[in-house]
Amino acid sequence: xxxxxxxxxxxxxxxxxxxxxxxxxxxxxxxxxxxxxxxxxxxxxxxxxxxxxxxxxxxxxxx
Amino acid sequence: xxxxxxxxxxxxxxxxxxxxxxxxxxxxxxxxxxxxxxxxxxxxxxxxxxxxxxxxxxxxxxxxxxxxxxxxxxxxxxxxxxxxxxxxxxxxxxxxxxxxxxxxxxxxxxxxxxxxxxxxxxxxxxxxxxxxxxxxxxxxxxxxxxxxxxxxxxxxxxxxxxxxxxxxxxxxxxxxxxxxxxxxxxxxxxxxxxxxxxxxxxxxxxxxxxxxxxxxxxxxxxxxxxxxxxxxxxxxxxxx
Lengths: 63, 240
Hints:
The structure holds two protein chains of two kinds. By secondary structure, chain A is mostly helical. In chain A, 73% of the residues lie in helices and 0% in strands. Chain A has a domain at 23-55. Chain B has eight helices and no strands. Chains A and B meet through helix 1 and helix 2 of A and helix 1 and helix 2 of B.
């Protein structure tokens, strides 16, 4: 069976994206009260990453 | 009834109808997984009531993107590129519930409570299905557990608003009214020929009507427990 083009590359790209999102959330969550700046930064990072996912310019991701 | 179990290497040997149905169901599932974040990230991530809520929205979206990734990989392995759904406008989504946008926290909460619950039902259909790579994704990974986390969060928030009474309760009732019928519609038509074919090929377990009825009873009990009114199950419905 021939896989669809870019199957592996898209999978790998999204793995990195998901790790980055989980990393940002995990780092910020314990410090929401004592370090709100870290939380704000994490939320901004997540927003930026998710905006790119939602834009969905797959060909650019896989360049 | 088809009782065999199919591995990736045997996919091309299967009946063309089996191949078509599997390609189709994976494309729809991938679309539904990415459809959620497309509905709520833009408006809800920046405006959720607290930083903790904002981080939970981000984590939920990350988990849905991961579910998309897993389904997209299964589809890609059988030659179907589902990446087109990543840049689809919401209006083009396969399932009507994903064609708008979520603008209020109440809608976000009820979306988790009711629509992610349909997502769990959809994933449960694939448990013990005839296509083993799909069966393994739903059984061995965290997909269903994460979906349950989204449902619980949404359900708790919905119950919280209902318990406040007054305007908060009215707003959450309005959101329940809106999403309840969308959820019922997500199961498709009762007399669906394709649904029967999915069952025939062992790709799904329940008929649309059976799954919808189980869902309806489960939701009705929870809505009643919250002191909310069960919406009219026919008002605004598209599929019966």
